[in-house]
Design goal:
The chain is built from eleven helices and nine strands. The protein has helices at 9-16, 20-29, 46-52, 60-70, 73-78, 101-116, 146-163, 232-235, 245-252, 267-284, 314-329; strands at 94-95, 123-129, 132-137, 175-178, 182-185, 209-211, 217-219, 289-295, 298-304. The strands form four sheets. It has a three-stranded mixed sheet with strand order 1-2-3.
């Protein structure tokens, strides 16, 4: 029987179409083992491990599949309609590990719903920072309407929090681990941060917690660095996943609703109301704050014309107000 042909790291990297550092990253994770590797390799010197590596033809397909997963190749095909990476030198890409693929998929599914409402928004790139995901779209925040700003803030924060509960290697439940760096990992992959620090198991959200010199944990000041414009309640992140149409609209259109307003009515009435609120959002752009409230004649828009959100001339302001009134009376389609 002929012995199997064996390959060095450099030879195997060329064979499977992946860089040698990516192959080493796969080996560090420990889920796929080559034909030969030093026992307990994660605890051995790098030079020893590299010299021990040998790959066979049996390793080709498993490593190709893992490289494909880590490059998000299937995701890029499935979500080509809402994923539009920059095509310029030095452009950023999906700079996260594959365990967060599900988070990216849910994020893009929401973008698809918004595009159906007429908002042309796409995912541009993503990165990991302090063990959580940061996602960037193709939209300039300065051009967003109040509803769009609220929607995107809520979705970004949902993704960030979900990532702090999801192993960035495999997608299983995990938590933030503190070692040589911060990473959100399950028990199987916690070795990737090395020796654990005092913060491990104590600081679970570095964007909202900090540890002082005495080892006591504190929350960051409200709206630290302007990051948290919305509270948990405002964002609806303290609500369950299952909500009826009225509750969902109370969260989605919170920038427009009076604080004490609770929507009710039939699904048909609420669907019509939702359509009107989307039209109002498009009409006001960034120029006005409005609040939606319940009056004797039904739901109405209370328009604040005294303090517009940005400068706009009186003629344009009057035109916006007139358009909103037409929308709410059903005269504008």
């Amino acid at each position: 029987m002929t012995d199997k042909k064996l390959y060095t790291l450099a030879e195997f990297s060329e064979l499977v179409g992946g860089r040698s550092d990516l192959i080493c990253r796969i080996l560090d994770a420990g889920d796929i083992r080559p034909h030969n590797i030093e026992p307990d390799h994660i605890f051995k010197p790098f030079s020893v491990v590299i010299n021990s590596l040998r790959f066979s033809d049996d390793d080709i397909e498993p490593f190709k599949a893992e490289i494909r997963r880590r490059k998000f190749e299937d995701f890029k095909v499935a979500y080509a309609d809402v994923y539009a990476p920059d095509q310029v030198p030095g452009a950023r890409g999906l700079e996260v590990n594959p365990g967060w693929t599900g988070i990216l998929e849910n994020y893009c599914n929401q973008l698809r719903e918004w595009r159906a409402d007429g908002w042309s928004i796409k995912l541009r790139w993503a990165k990991e920072k302090f063990g959580s995901i940061r996602i960037f779209s193709n939209i300039d925040h300065r051009t967003m309407t109040p509803l769009q700003a609220f929607r995107l803030s809520r979705l970004d924060e949902w993704a960030r929090r979900r990532s702090l509960q999801t192993c960035q290697e495999c997608g299983r439940p995990g938590r933030l681990r503190w070692g040589s760096h911060a990473a959100t990992l399950c028990d199987r992959h916690k070795h990737l941060v090395g020796e654990l620090r005092a913060e491990d198991g104590v600081i679970l959200d570095p964007d909202r917690q900090k540890m002082d010199k005495e080892g006591r944990v504190h929350g960051w000041p409200e709206n630290f660095l302007g990051r948290y414009t919305w509270t948990d309640t405002d964002l609806g992140l303290d609500e369950g996943q299952t909500m009826d149409l009225a509750k969902s609209m109370e969260i989605e259109f919170r920038p427009f609703l009076s604080p004490d307003l609770r929507l009710d009515g039939t699904d048909l009435e609420l669907a019509d109301l939702r359509k009107k609120l989307l039209a109002v959002d498009q009409a006001i752009g960034r120029h006005h704050w409005v609040k939606f409230q319940l009056r004797q004649r039904g739901y109405e828009i209370a328009i604040d014309t005294t303090e517009p959100c940005s400068t706009v001339d009186e003629i344009r302001r009057d035109a916006i107000i007139a358009e909103i009134e037409m929308i709410m009376s059903g005269e504008h389609v």
